[in-house]
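Sequence in, structure out. Go.
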Amino acid sequence: MSRSSALKAATVVALLAGGAAMAQEDGAALFQQHCAVCHGNEGQGLVGPNLAGNDNLEDADHVIRQILNGGQQMPPFRSVLNDEQIAAVATHVRTSWGNEFGPVEPEQVAEARAGRGGGGQPPDQQQGEEQPPAQGEEQPPEEPEGEEQPPAAAPVEPEPPAIPPAFEGQYNPVTDERLLDPEPGNWLMYKRTYDLQSFSPLDQVNTENVADLEPVWTFATGVTDGHEAPPIVNDGIMFVTGAFNTLFALDARNGDLIWEYRRELAEDVAPEVCCGLVNRGVALYGDKVYMATLDSHLLAFDAVTGEMVWDTTVADYTQGYAMTLAPLAAAGKVLVGVAGGEYGIRGFVAAYDAETGEEVWKTYTIPEPGEPGSETWPGDTWQTGGAPIWVTGSYDPELGLTYWGTGNGGPWMGDARPGDNLYVSSVIALDIETGEIRAHYQYVPNDSWDYDEISDQTLVEVERDGETVRGLIHAGRNGYFYLLDRTNLDFIYGVPYIEGGPMTITGFEEDGRPIIPEERKPGLDKSAEVCPVTGGANNWFGLSFSPQTAYAYVPTTEYCMTITGTEVQYEAGENFTGAEAERYPPEGFDWTGALQAIDVATGEVVWKVQQTTPFRSAVTATAGGLVFGGDIFTREFRAYDATTGEILWRFKANSSVQGVPVSYEIDGVQYIAVQAGYGGAAANYIPRAAEAFGIPFTPVRGGTVWVFALDQEQEQ
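Output:
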């Protein structure tokens, strides 16, 4: 079978890491393995049509032909399933969910495969084509037509296919050197590199051929809620997390499952997590895989076996602490931050020894009395002041600094805690060895709008006025795009990247302090009408930066609010926001979302692609001149021209595509991978906008890893 046929046959429907050969002949299991990702677990229809009560299934020959030959978005299975397996699947769909059309026999499939009995076959298939062998059965050699064959010799064992080292009990350790300069074909951390640029140097898939991109395999996580994590790939082995702290190690060639972990979360964990039971991925270091959990543990696993090596408690989840971010592995340590700004926590970043799990240092994002910045907190408000950290930080190894964005204050209304409230809604630069705060910039002093500035603090080199600036860029939740000097976090510029108003921030003082008019400040029983909304112009997904174009690619939401403070008393583990908000599109707008390219040197918008509903998914740029990103409303995964913004390719997935796209390479083939799965608080603005504009939207749930590649035969 050609590589092209193998890729097409594995497409769309390889649920739960299935493969071409299955010993399991049960039709229900085969359906779940190969079909449910498109047709639904109960045949209710997702990407594919509804099979329940479907009269088209009465014609057995039609069902067999459809499975053998595919059609529209459905791939052919003639090279994937043998006659017994196809008969089992056909029988299952014809006798389940209210269908009473009777079984299908393998002999019927054999006749259809051979072109007899009305089964037919596509014109490029020769009559009498052999079916795939059953599990453990060898494929007989082909005999040339018109020649008398000598007696068959003893069968020759075929050369085994290439397999990831993990199947042989081997693993390429992830060293500091590899993390500092990762191989082009690997994606070893959250946004691929320490600078958080979310850029792939691979260019086999490019503007000229991306239209030929096609799915090659999928893997269903078996859980719902938001799927935001990037698939992390190390030399052909993929590590990916789903919602509810599920973790899977997969063969990155075909989605075969190596091992999995599903955390047993206590029933009282969910009420302590404000914004979806999501997870944003793993970190790799040495021979271990690290995951942060919703119940505030940091776990280390053996990368080959999946055995848990250590389990460290980071915080007490019953007090409102949670972790949803991907850990950062650097300099022998694993760094994490804690969520919980809506529960009156005191935020922190902590570093743990990568080998033992012992705490190395912990730095609070709110100073206690006597520490620098404590004067910005009145009384004991610092104890419940928030400033959470729930997205992975960046790291500059030359400066020895790691940069983390912090979240909202607690409670939300700033008049409950007068002062700037360091380091709420800020970026802080920490010494990687000690955790000492070396510098900071506060995006929103005395935050009263839930403007968590936690998303990417991306490190770039920028040419300005003939000089190279060691910059840090950030697409603020507050609607401004920033360039800072990362050596000291001095302000260089801040420019609005949203169009709706009135904006909370109206400008900047000479030192970069934001100017916020009094009428834009809400308080207890005091309302303010402002843009953007609490969920921000940008959120956890941040941005992507291409060194080729020097553009930042920013998913954008245009949404406004009227926000009012309410009475609230702190109680450990309970909501501590104290605010109500009415949320709505900007006046006169018929669109609320966009992907836009911003010239980092100047802050100017180069292009903007608008859409009706908010753009609340992550994006990734590649050296092929492309930007990949998903969409929640349409369930599409798209490729944009990085220079012009033109949409060059799109694919509709089973559920909303929200996750961080990645690219990796195996055996000279470039793959694009992303997770689909509706959920998480950031996605809530899509049904909001749909209702505001009077357009229907019904979320489709179900976590799935989608992997795409070009047809390699066409590329040769």
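Check: The longest helix spans residues 83-94. Residues 235 and 500 are 45 Å apart (CA to CA).
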